[in-house]
Amino acid sequence: MRSLFVRLLTSSAVVAVCSISATAWLAASSTSGAIQREQGQTLASDARINNSLLGYASRHSNWSDVAPTLRDLATQNSRRIALAAESGTLIADSATAGTPLPAKVSAVVDPLAVDVTLVPGAARDRIDPRAVGPFLLSARDRARLRKAADAYAACTARTGQAVQVTVSNTGRPLVTPLNQGVGQQSRPVQSPMPMPMPMPVPTAAPVVMSGCDATTFSTPTRTEKAALKQLNLLVSRCLKGKGAGRGSVGLDFAWVSKERQPMPPAAEPDQVISSCIVTGRKEQLDPYVAPAAYLYIGSPVEATGRLIPLPSIAGAALLVLVLTVGVSVMAARRLVRPVNALTHAAQRMRDGDSSARVTVRTTGEISELATAFNEMSEHLQRMEEQRKAMVSDVSHELRTPLSNLRGWLEAAQDGVAELDPALIASLVEEILLLQHIVDDLQELALADAGKLRLHVEPVHLGDLLDQVSIAHRGRAEAAGLTLTTVVTDDPSLTADPVRLRQAIGNLVTNSLRYTPRGGHITLGAHQDGDQVVVEVTDTGIGIRAEYLPHVFDRFWRAEKSRNRQTGGSGLGLAIVRNLAEAHGGTATVASVPGVRTTFTLRLPS
Hints:
This protein is of the alpha+beta class. The protein has helices spanning 2-59, 67-77, 139-158, 215-218, 222-239, 271-285, 310-350, 365-413, 421-448, 461-478, 497-514, 572-582, and strands at residues 80-85, 90-93, 107-109, 163-167, 173-177, 208-209, 212-213, 247-249, 255-257, 293-298, 457-460, 482-487, 492-495, 520-528, 531-538, 586-592, 596-604. It has four domains: 2-126 and 291-298, no CATH class; 133-222, no CATH class; 229-288, no CATH class; 453-604, Histidine kinase-like ATPase, C-terminal domain (Heat Shock Protein 90, 2-Layer Sandwich). The strands form six sheets. It has a five-stranded mixed beta sheet with strand order 12-14-15-17-16. Strand 6 (208-209) and strand 7 (212-213) form a beta hairpin.
């Protein structure tokens, strides 16, 4: 006990010292670099998270389905992310319910008022370009316009003027000229579409570039016309009474004067007009985007960026070491106590006390060991009781025929009885009984030792059952019983035919003994998956439910007087079970008292 206690305590202390030393060194050497890397990663991560949520808000009218997106972002960036409405109501949170929000708002997610601190390249109107609202083209229009733009690009390629076709956020194709060679500047396609703008500017006027017509894909669709009409109404309402000139807004959201000429790119539009265009766009997009929400981003590590002083590390290490030793002492004592109890119980068993048990008070490996010890003790106690009962049963089974033999032989020796043929036949019957009991015990001993030899070969089960039936038909007819065989699907298996006939014969003999005159005994066999099932069913007196678990026990008989007139030696069914297990199968019994009893052998085919 002391050796185990000391070893546990020493091991815990050594592990604690090594762990503390390694942890302290790694923490002191890597803190500064980790903090610097974390700061850069945090800033980039915040920008990615904000941009992803802006994209979601631009494409959805509310935040109702944002939870999966938010959890994915939290997993990808290893951050805690939460969204809350401007009223303070929590929209979604990657943390568990009840976790308080970070103290500081990281950003405001609003596609109509982009946070320029996290999106440095945001447009001057601060509207996310992914928010297109009613300008979003249908799949049919996208396919038609893309096909026309690709045809236009192929046409210009044949003339030696390379262009690039891209797709805007609305789904409209954009055509941009490519460089013609080294030292040459790219020239924009002469079409009503300003290529650098994020939105196309199609008109109804035909456009021809080197013989290539861009009218098909540059003309506004019905969807765009309706959206522009709505936007111009909103802008006109805003400009009403402010003295602005007449004009309209194009697909590039630029103001076109009443002469229908767009304002040059270098010119600054009037501040009032620009303000009304932005106001009109926000009012038009508002039903199509999610409302503004507060974004909370939790920092994965809060660090000050300075090294921990060595005295603090040493003090923490000493405290941890003391706690480790204290906990180890308690754990060692709790571990050694049940081991000591097991030792005393084992010593009691060694001294012959088979009732020795260990009290199980805890859970875990020690409790499992104690439970296994108790089960072993109970098993040994049962085995000892069975051994004593078996010795008693064997002596009783052998005593009766030996007593008969001795009595008759002594009577013949004294001249009291004459050794006539009838007496000799009776003595031979007693000797055969003794031989039968000895042979059964020998087979059980071989089975227990794993030395029972099987000579396996392919067996036709129908023929085997017929042989058993023919061998017992005479006894059945003499007892007034009907013996039949029912075989389904003609099953076959690989087994020892002699041992198998012995097992089935024992079952039939048992049924003949306990089935009254006029009864019926059926030998059946059928295939059940990868197993062959052999059943012996009789209409005998049956077996009570409390006796069923003991039917296959050695020398067990329901009739405790062991009268030879009411049963055999009690070894036949035990042999049946051993032979079935030797073939890799099982033997079971089911019975309804006074109705039927069925013994079943399940053997692998």
